[in-house]
Design goal:
The chain is an alpha+beta fold and 446 residues long. The chain folds into 2 domains: 153 residues, 2-Layer Sandwich (Chloramphenicol Acetyltransferase), CATH 3.30.559; 237 residues, Chloramphenicol Acetyltransferase (2-Layer Sandwich). Helices cover 34% and strands 21% of the residues. The protein has a 6-stranded mixed β-sheet with strand order 5-6-7-2-13-12, sandwiched between helices. It has a 6-stranded mixed β-sheet with strand order 8-15-14-11-9-10. α1 packs across α9. The longest helix has 25 residues. It is globular, with a radius of gyration of 22 Å.
Length: 446
C-alpha cells in the first residue's frame, strides 16, 4: 500500500483540531426533488458512487516509525493512504425529513469527523414537504481545501464538465543527505529569503493588531456549538455595483460583509462606531505541478473591514484600496501570509505546537471571509437539479463567526457558520447581507 506524506499545511490543520473546534469544511447543497423518495434515492447514489472515487477512500494515519528519527522533518508527521476496509455506508447517512435544512446543518457541523477512517461525510436531508432535499458534505481540511473538496463532491454528482487535470511531474530521485555544493549558493539565498519573509510576516502581524476595535460579537468565548445560515444575492446586482463603483466582484462581496456587520451590530445593540475587525481573505497558491498535488496551498490577505464607516460606497472604496495594496505586495508577504510559515516547521513541531497555533489564530484575525469556487455549469444528482449551495468554513478558537461565499448559476450564496451560543441571531446577519447589496445598488444610482 502506497502512502503520501501530508503537506505541511495539511499537517497543521490535522493537528490544530480539537473536539470543540473541528477542522472540516462544509457545503450544503439544496436540490429540487421530483418525487418524495428523491432523498433516499440520492443517498443510495452517493454511496454507490463514492466507492469509485479514489480521493474518498483516503485516510490519514499518524507516522511514528523509528526510521523517521533520523529525518526530523518527517518524524511525528502523518500520511495519506488508501483505507483497506473502506465502506461508503460509514460516510453516507440518510436522515429523517427536516423542515429547516440550515438548522440541521448547524447541528451536524458541530461533530468532528472520525479520524480513524477517510475524513469525510455526506448527510442526506429529505425535505418535509417532499419537494426538495439537501446534502451536507463535510471534508476535513487536511484532506481537501475548497477547490479539492469541490472536485471530490463533483465526482459523486451527475457527470459535469470539469477541467482536465494535468499529469503530475515525476519527482526527482532522492539524493544523499549532503547537498550538491554547486547548489549551496542557491540554498543559502533561499534560506535568507525565508528568514526575511518570516520576519516580514511577523512584523506585519504585530502591526495589524495595533489599534484594532474588534466587536465583542466576533470575539466571544467558544462553546463548541454551531449554527449555520445562508443568504442569496443576485449576481447581476453585484456586477451593477462593480461597474458603477469600480473594483472587482470579490471587492464588492467583501464590502457587503462589512456593511452587513455594521447593520447587524447596530440592530442588536452593539455599537459599530470605530469597529474595524481584521478579516483574513484566503488566497489559493495551488499550482498544477507541486510536490503535494492534493495538499492545501494557501496564503492570505489581511484587511480591516471598514465596519465603522457609515457610507456604503466609502466602505467599498476602502475595501478596494486595501485589496489593491495586498495584491501589489503579493501573497508571499504581509500579515495574511502566516500559513506559508507552515512549510518551514518540522512535522513534530506541528504536532506539539498545534494547540498553541490554534489559539494564536485569535491574535491574528477576527473573522474569516473566504471564496469557494464552483463550476459555471449546473449540477444534478439522480436527475434532481442543484438549486443552491452554501459553503461553510471552520471556526478557529476564540472566534465566533466565519463567512464563505460561492457563485452558482447567476446567484451568490453566502454560507455563515457561528458559535451557536455566541451568535444566536445569525439569521439576522444573513438578512443584513441581502439588504446590504440593495443599499449598494441604491447608492450607485440608476
Amino acid at each position: 500500500m502506497t502512502s503520501d506524506p501530508l503537506a505541511p499545511l495539511d499537517l497543521a490543520f490535522w493537528n490544530i483540531e480539537s473536539p470543540e473546534h473541528p477542522m472540516h469544511l462544509g457545503a450544503l447543497g439544496v436540490f429540487t426533488a421530483r418525487t418524495p423518495a428523491a432523498g433516499a434515492h440520492a443517498a443510495d447514489l452517493l454511496a454507490a458512487r463514492a466507492a469509485a472515487v479514489p480521493g474518498l477512500r483516503m485516510r490519514i494515519r499518524d507516522a511514528w516509525e523509528p526510521s523517521r528519527l533520523l529525518r526530523p522533518r518527517t518524524f511525528g508527521g502523518a500520511t495519506r493512504e488508501e483505507c483497506p476496509r473502506f465502506d461508503p455506508l460509514d460516510h453516507v447517512v440518510l436522515h429523517a425529513p427536516a423542515g429547516d435544512f440550515q438548522a440541521r446543518a448547524g447541528q451536524l457541523m458541530e461533530h468532528s469527523l472520525d479520524r480513524g477512517r477517510p475524513p469525510w461525510e455526506a448527510h442526506v436531508l429529505p425535505g418535509e414537504d417532499g419537494a426538495s432535499f439537501a446534502v451536507l458534505f463535510k471534508f476535513h481540511h487536511a484532506l481537501a481545501d475548497g477547490l479539492r473538496a469541490l472536485t471530490l463532491a463533483a465526482a459523486v454528482l451527475d457527470p459535469m464538465d470539469m477541467p482536465a487535470s494535468r499529469p503530475r511531474r515525476p519527482e526527482e530521485p532522492r539524493r544523499g543527505t549532503l547537498p550538491d555544493v554547486r547548489r549551496l549558493p542557491g540554498l543559502v539565498r533561499g534560506a535568507l529569503s525565508d528568514v526575511g519573509r518570516a520576519l516580514d510576516i511577523g512584523a506585519s502581524v504585530a502591526v495589524s493588531s495595533l489599534g484594532v476595535r474588534s466587536p465583542d460579537a466576533l470575539t466571544a468565548g467558544s462553546t463548541g456549538t454551531r449554527r449555520t445560515a445562508g443568504a442569496v444575492l443576485d449576481l447581476d446586482d453585484v456586477h451593477r455595483v462593480r461597474k458603477s463603483a469600480g473594483g472587482t466582484v470579490n471587492d464588492v462581496l467583501i464590502a457587503v460583509v462589512a456593511g452587513a456587520l455594521r447593520r447587524w451590530l447596530d440592530e442588536r445593540g452593539d455599537s459599530s462606531d470605530g469597529a474595524a475587525p481584521r478579516a483574513l481573505i484566503p488566497v489559493s497558491r495551488r499550482r498544477p505541478r507541486t510536490a503535494h498535488p492534493q495538499g492545501n496551498r494557501l496564503s492570505g490577505y489581511l484587511i480591516r473591514l471598514p465596519v465603522g464607516d457609515p457610507d456604503p460606497l466609502g466602505r467599498l472604496g476602502t475595501v478596494r484600496a486595501a485589496m489593491d495594496r495586498n495584491k501589489d505586495a503579493g501573497p508571499d508577504r504581509g500579515a495574511g501570509a502566516v500559513a506559508l510559515l507552515a512549510d518551514h516547521v518540522p512535522a513534530l513541531g506541528h504536532r506539539l505546537g498545534g494547540p498553541f497555533a490554534a489559539r494564536a489564530a485569535r491574535l491574528w484575525f477576527d473573522i474569516l471571509v473566504t471564496s469557494v469556487p464552483l463550476p459555471g455549469v449546473g449540477m444534478r444528482l439522480g436527475g434532481h437539479p442543484l438549486a443552491a449551495v452554501y459553503p461553510y468554513a471552520p471556526l478557529a478558537p476564540g472566534q465566533a463567526l466565519a463567512v464563505a461565499v460561492s457563485t452558482y448559476r447567476g446567484r451568490v450564496h453566502y454560507g455563515l457558520v457561528a458559535d451557536a451560543a455566541a451568535v444566536p441571531d445569525l439569521d439576522r446577519l444573513a438578512e443584513a447581507l441581502e439588504r446590504e447589496v440593495e443599499t449598494l445598488v441604491t447608492a450607485c444610482g440608476p
